[in-house]
Amino acid sequence: MDFASEINRRDSDSVKWRLYKDRDIIPLWVADMDFAVAPEIKDALQARLDHGVYGYADATESVVEATLGHLERDYNWTVDPDWLVWLPGVVPGLAMACRTCSEPGDKVIVSSPVYYPFLVVPEVAERTVCDVPLTRDNGHWRYDLDALEAAARDPRATMMIICSPHNPVGRLFSRDELAAVVEIARRHGVTVVSDEIHDGLVLEPGLSFTPTAVAAPEHAGDMITLMSPSKTFNLAGLNATYAVIPDAERRTTFQHHMKGPVMRPSPFALTATEAAYSKGHAWHNELIATLRANRDRLIAAVNALPSVHMDPIEATYLGWIDVSALRLNDAPAWFEDKGLGFSPGAPFGDDRFVRWNFGCPPATLERAITRFETAVSERAHELGLG
Fold first, then answer.
1. Cross-strand bridge partners of residue 162
2. Is the pLDDT of residue 386 over 70?
3. Which of 91, 174, 253, 291, by CA, is between 20 and 30 Å from 204?
4. What's the whole-model pTM score?
5. What is the pLDDT of residues 65-114, one digit of tens each?
C-alpha cells in the first residue's frame, strides 16, 4: 500500500483536478483523496468488471452482512438488515429525509458552519432553514445547546440535521454531546437526521467515533442515520451510501419518496462497499497514520504563521482555516492566484475561513504548505502584522 506516490489526476476525469487543469494550482478543495483505493477493493471491482453484465443491482446478502458486521464490530451498533436503505449519495438521503420528516413550510434546524447541502437541500424542498451556529470556544467547536433548545421549541421546527464527525470543523462529538443534542430534539418532537459519512476518519489518538443512535439509544428508533464507505475508503465517485431507518413507517415513507428521483446504487458501488468493510482494514490503518501525520504537519505550519489559524482536527481530512486577519475581499480567489485551490468558507456559512483538504501524499502537502507560507507571509508583511 502506497500513500506516498503522487498519482497523475490532472489528465484524468477528476472533478477535483480538472477545475485547474490548465493552471498551476494545487487542488485542495472537494472532499476526495489523492490515494489509490485498497488493493482488495480494486481486486473486487476487477472481478465484478470481468463478469461482463452491469445491470441494476440490489445489495446481496454478503454486502449487507459486511455492512452490519462493520457497524457491530467497530461501533457496537446492532442494526437489523431491514433498517438499511441503499442510496446513491448522502445528499439524496438528506433530500428524502426532508420529505419524510417534515412538510413544506416547516423549519429544518442546522448548525453552521456545515457541509453546504445542509443549507441548500431544505430550501429546495420548500422548507425553511433555521441556522443555529456552532459556538467556538478557544478553538473548540460545540453545538449551542441553549440556542438549539430555543429553536426546537418552535412548533414549526420538525427536523434537525447534524454532522458527526463534523465537516468542515473536524470535531468528533462525544457520546454525551450527541446525547444532549438528541434529547433536546426529541423533547420537542424534532426528528434527528445524522450525517455520519466521515465515521472512519478519526485522527486523534484515544478518541473513537460513536454513532448518534448509539449515543442516544432510547431515541434511536426515531432517527435517520446516513453513512457510507465513500470518504473513509476514497470511493466518492462510486456513490455508495445507505440510510439506517429503524422505524418501519418512516422507512416506507422514505422509500416512497425515492421512487423516480433517486436511482439505486450501481453494482460497482455495492461491490466496493462489501470489499471495503470486509477486507479494507490494513489499508485503513495505514491511511489513518498518513492523515494523522499530514494533519500534524499542516497544523504546525499554519499556526506558526502570525495571521492565520487552524483549530485542532479530531477527525476527517479537512482543515478549517481562519484567514480573516488577512483582510481579503475574496480569499479563495486570492489563494488561487498563489497556486492554492481551497474550498471557500461562504457556502459552509462563514466566509472568514477556507477549507483545506489534506488527503494527499506528503509531497503534495509540502508543496502546498510552501506556497501557503510564502503567500501568507507576504500578505502579513503588507498589512504590518506580526
1. 194
2. no
3. 91
4. 0.97
5. 999 999 999 999 999 999 999 999 999 999 999 999 999 999 999 999 99
pLDDT tens track for 112-136? 999 999 999 999 999 999 999 999 9
Q: Do 170 and 223 fall into the same domain?
A: yes
Q: How far lies 181's CA from each of 98, 100, 191, in Å?
A: 19, 21, 11
Write down the pLDDT at residue 210: 98
Please give the DSSP secondary-structure letter assigned to residue 107. E
Helix locations, the chain, DSSP H: 15-18, 39-51, 61-75, 90-101, 117-124, 145-152, 175-187, 212-215, 248-258, 267-279, 281-303, 331-337, 362-383
Cell of 319: 482543515
Segments forming the whole domain that contains residue 117: 54-279
* Look-up of cell digits 424542498: 125
Cβ neighbours for 258, distance < 8 A, ≥ 6 positions apart: 85, 87, 92, 96
Q: What is the dihedral angle through the alpha carbons of 323, 324, 329, 333, rounded to the nearest 10 degrees?
A: 10
pLDDT band at 385 (very low <50, low <70, confident <90, very high): confident
Last residue of a domain, one of 217, 252, 279: 279
In this structure, the answer to whether residues 107 and 142 fall within a common structural domain is yes
